[in-house]
Amino acid sequence: MGKYDRNDPETLKLLGSSFENQDYQTVLEIFRDLHPADQAKMFYALKTDQQEVLLERMEIPEIADIFDELEDKQTLTAARNLPLPFLADIIDDMDPDEAADLLGDLSGQDVRRTISLMEESEEVLPLLRYADETAGGRMTTDFLLLGPGDSADSAIQYLRSAGLETDIPYYLFVVNKEKDLLGVVGLRELICADPGQIISDIMESNVVSVQAMQDQEEAAQVMKHYDLQALPVLNNLDQLVGVISHDDILDVLVDESTEDIYRLASVSDYALEPESGLFLQLKGRLPWLLLNTITALIGAWVISNFGDLFVQVAVLAFFQSVVAAQGGNAASQNVAMIVRSLALGKVNPKQIIPILFRQILVGMFLGTVIGLIVGIGVGFWQANPYLGLVLGLALLGNMLVASIVGTLAPLILEFTGQDPA
Amino acid sequence: MGKYDRNDPETLKLLGSSFENQDYQTVLEIFRDLHPADQAKMFYALKTDQQEVLLERMEIPEIADIFDELEDKQTLTAARNLPLPFLADIIDDMDPDEAADLLGDLSGQDVRRTISLMEESEEVLPLLRYADETAGGRMTTDFLLLGPGDSADSAIQYLRSAGLETDIPYYLFVVNKEKDLLGVVGLRELICADPGQIISDIMESNVVSVQAMQDQEEAAQVMKHYDLQALPVLNNLDQLVGVISHDDILDVLVDESTEDIYRLASVSDYALEPESGLFLQLKGRLPWLLLNTITALIGAWVISNFGDLFVQVAVLAFFQSVVAAQGGNAASQNVAMIVRSLALGKVNPKQIIPILFRQILVGMFLGTVIGLIVGIGVGFWQANPYLGLVLGLALLGNMLVASIVGTLAPLILEFTGQDPA
């Protein structure tokens, strides 16, 4: 590691005092010593006027590196106040996929003006047509092409002339003149080949690819299953239009897991963090709490219509909350397992029936064990075997239903084309 | 893709009939056409006697490829019935990290005999000393070394002589004779360098690394943060002992997310799947349900000691279940956010206080909104403003406490060295 460290108190102190003393030389020295990923974290933590000072003094490629590393929302915030010609230069230098995300987040008028000011918009424009959550929305257009008749030696010359900066550095993609994907060559194979060998003899022609319109989660599953470092993306004419790199797929898997976890905990805003603003917190958390409260109150109202019974069955009403809680717990166990299996691509439609039968059996066992314990316990304790029997049966029934609903609900959502989590 | 497809019914039908007709030539043809990841999925789905037929007829390197792709438990099941000399040959051909995992899962006596029968145990033995969940447990020893004084040309000659099969194919690691890590060279940089250039002039010397004893989750966070394809692992003398590759880190992130989700849903066995056996299901799900039931019953018993009050406050008891449910919901929202932020390395100890204050504020707002709605609603409906007031305040208090507990509990577990999820 370098001289400075983003997490080192000394570094942070020096940075703070340098800003105070307007010693921007030292500020830049600290920044330039850090990895862009750390620069981005540090940049985001600065005050707005400090960010402005930096943006004025850094080189365009340096700013582009930081923008590539910031999260999409953070990039937008930093980009918003920049003059459009300056912003256009930065976007020209960004990774095409990040550039497309940023352009897609700008307001309609700014998009058009920024694109007209850009010099290399042809790398970014094809990406704008794909939705954020598709394979096309995750791919980059910054990769290297070979023809099947090229020699290994000429491929190496081409690599040397293309220089070091490519999003997909360790693979070359082989296409014919219709841009059909014929194969892939790794740099390792290229180096080990005889200089005169023809690419079509070296390349791996059995290539896994995805369609640009496919869900990014499917692309992630394919890359994980085959341990791929780069996944080619084809359009509907089966032409090679982009490549997804391994770090994008990490982001997809992490984002999707966060979504799963938040959805299971009834947090509806998947970008919410513990330190997010109050308004965002309420917006992401209140709706489901309200819905749940209202449902519970309606339930109470229905029962209250039974008048006298409401007080008579006070004891039952009390124990009923135990029954309801266990049903809820059992259902959430089921939902968690199914949602996770779906996310990891482990369930296919043919397995629904066996899984359902397995879970009905599990629900019966869970209900029997819990039902017997509560039923016998409460029956003796309240000296009321009838109460025990009712509670035991209620628990058995409730957990059986919970198992069925908790299993079927996410499966039905998934296979009717919705995203259960 | 090849001629056959693991998910194609035609392929599966042909496979089934070939097994029936003992046409093992066709069985092998189908298998050899598939990617090892698909071979593994298909192998796992076979009956035991069909697996045996395959293991008898496949080449050792083919079996090793399949074993590399199977999940650890599946590999152990397949390996258990093999004669040890045969198994030793397979393990010799496996990736060192997978080989170490398999050896670690064998019984003590078998480990010693297998190792003594192996020819290349020196690649695997150093890995056996690291626990499964550490960086050392995830790393491979199959990577390539250079000296700082080597020329680019001699490095390329070395690559050609080393052949194509290395776990870490696109990076070369530069060490001195004490095995201290001096730098990393990517194949791209090597190809673009002048043949006579010295490695120490080409290499990136600012290298991120982890310690072998560090948690695999920390290694995963580092690789994700810096978008690394390979992460060097050092021992406590800071010597290079291994490298973690990008696909291992995918597995870590996915496993840890599954753990998070299961823990939040009170499923205690993180390997449980919807189709797991009945006994495993009960073992992974009953304990927490039982604990929760017993807690609820103790609560009921405490309240029942108040005798008459138990019936008198029947209405309150009923509405109280609404209060309890909302507190539980709010707490689980908090736990989910904190657990996820911790898993992604977004929280450091300094942030605990501001996060807690933010969440106390959020809890007050949530409690006020829900409390007002329920309090006013029930107050008017039951024509009992006192009941409304009590319920409203109970909700406010409950959600405030829920927010504090739901925020602090996972944070305290984390920073006292335990793993909250």
Tell me the layout of helices and strands.
2 copies of one chain form a homodimer.
Chain A: H1 9-20, H2 24-33, H3 36-45, H4 48-57, H5 60-69, H6 72-80, H7 84-93, H8 96-105, H9 108-117, H10 135-138, E1 144-146, H11 152-162, E2 171-175, E3 181-186, H12 187-192, H13 199-202, E4 210-211, H14 216-225, E5 230-234, E6 240-245, H15 246-264, H16 278-304, H17 308-312, H18 314-343, H19 352-381, H20 385-415
Helix pairs in contact in A: 1-2, 3-5, 5-7, 6-8, 7-9, 14-15, 15-18, 18-20, 19-20
Structure description:
The structure is a homodimer of 421-residue chains. The two termini of chain A are 39 Å apart. Chain A is 64% helix and 6% strand. Chain A is mainly alpha-helical. The mean pLDDT of chain A is 84. In chain A, strand 1 (144-146), helix 11 (152-162) and strand 2 (171-175) form a beta-alpha-beta unit. Chain A is globular, with a radius of gyration of 29 Å. Chain A folds into three domains: 9-129, Alpha Horseshoe (MgtE N-terminal fold), CATH 1.25.60.10; 144-251, Roll (CBS-domain); 306-415, Tetracycline Repressor, domain 2. A three-stranded mixed β-sheet of chain A has the order 1-2-3. A three-stranded mixed β-sheet of chain A has the order 4-5-6.
